[in-house]
Amino acid sequence: MRDLADRLEHLGTETAFAVSKAAADWAAAGNTVYPFHLGDIDLPTPRNIVTAMNAAIEAGRTGYCPAPGIPELRAALAADIGSRRSMTFVPEQIAVQPGGKPVITKFIQTLMRPGQGVLYPSPGYPIYESQVEYFGGRPLPYGYRRTDEGFEIDLDRLAELAPQASVLIYNNLQNPLGCESSQSEMDAVAALAIEHDLWVLSDEAYFEMRYSGSSTSIASLDGMADRTVILYTFSKKFAMTGWRLGCAAGPERVIEMIAKLNTNDESCTTHFIQHAGVAALADPSGAASLLDELRRRRDATAAALADVPGVRFAVPEATFYLFPDVSEAMDRTGHTAVGDFATAALHATGVSFCTRHHFGRPLPGEDDRAIRLAYSGIGVDAIGEGLGRLAEWVDGDGR
């Protein structure tokens, strides 16, 4: 039998799902699991969205539709994305997608030639690294420095790598760190993109998942609109992770090619789900209660984590992640590898989480003793109980 295609050797995965399997296996054996590992949302999609989907099905919106998206949704997205970013978009600048993740793949296919360098964050969403390598790009990961307030991009390293790149992936309100750029940091990233004539993918999956302040898109800065594609998704704001609905927003000539990839890949995004998206944008009131609950969970996680010995972290104002340094906790429990620490914590306490290694390969010289806690899929009471057990375990030196 013939071998599989060689390019598959370069295809990575979202390794958080491996943590899910380990947690599920531990639960199946009769143990309690506190699921901090997967950035899914266990809250219901707002009712008006579900009602709109059911009505669309009853109305027969179950066939093919235009590859770039139905006109009503493209218009609604253009208006919503533009107004929230102080920009102007027209429907022709929108290509609807089955989720946010396809925007990454189609952006890279459209704008990266094999052998070209691509800048992407590390730690960062692992699909960046996977798709760059799968399509034959040259990975150029840039890192972060931990500060008292959170994290900041290593701008010196980014500037050093930028001359080697043709594409920059930028994720403000970042997964897994939970951090956001200051205005000066965003200005510096934009200046590098302009200086080196880089295409930019601005991953804005968490643009509206914030507890204070307001978000700024790098696409709105001078000189950036014509070189930037925005990744937009309904998954987070509207608790629609499994619905698979999002879009690419950007220059028309790029969006036209992304829409052509739609035709080749999936023909179109599910017709009736697009009508649900129209309803979500027309009445986004249900998103407010979702965010209120996530704020409660954020505060509960921060309060309980503060009682875990040997853990250092900042409280983020956006996303639904904390990314603590657990170096001292690892020392206390006798672990030198963060993966071993995670496995031991699961078996001793039931607390399940991802580690730094699930978000791209660690950079040379990087201290990798960090974990990610996602509080989007676990309630307040379970947060306190699970992290209380983790605190007792660490305080007992892993006994």
Helix content bin = 40-55%
Q: Classify the fold: give the CATH topology of the largest domain.
A: Aspartate Aminotransferase, domain 2
* Overall mean pLDDT: 96
List low-pLDDT spans: none
Number of helices: 13
The total count of strands amounts to: 14
Taken as a percent bin, the fraction of beta residues is: 5-15%
Order of helices and strands: HEHHEHEHEEEHEHEEEHHHEHHEEEH
CATH class of the largest domain: Alpha Beta
Alpha-carbon distance between the two ends:
51 Å
Concise overview:
The chain is α/β, with parallel strands linked by helices and 399 residues long.
Can you give a write-up of this model?
- The chain is globular and about 60 Å long.
- It is an alpha/beta fold.
- The strands form 4 sheets. A 7-stranded mixed β-sheet has the order 2-10-9-8-7-3-4, with helices on both faces.
- The termini are far apart.
- It has 2 domains: 6-44 and 287-395, Aspartate Aminotransferase, domain 1, CATH 3.90.1150; 47-282, Type I PLP-dependent aspartate aminotransferase-like (Major domain) (Aspartate Aminotransferase, domain 2), CATH 3.40.640.10.
- It contains 13 helices and 14 strands.
- 40% of the residues lie in helices and 13% in strands.
- Helix 4 runs parallel beside helix 5 (126-134), helix 4 (101-111) crosses helix 8 and helix 10 (286-305) packs parallel to helix 13.
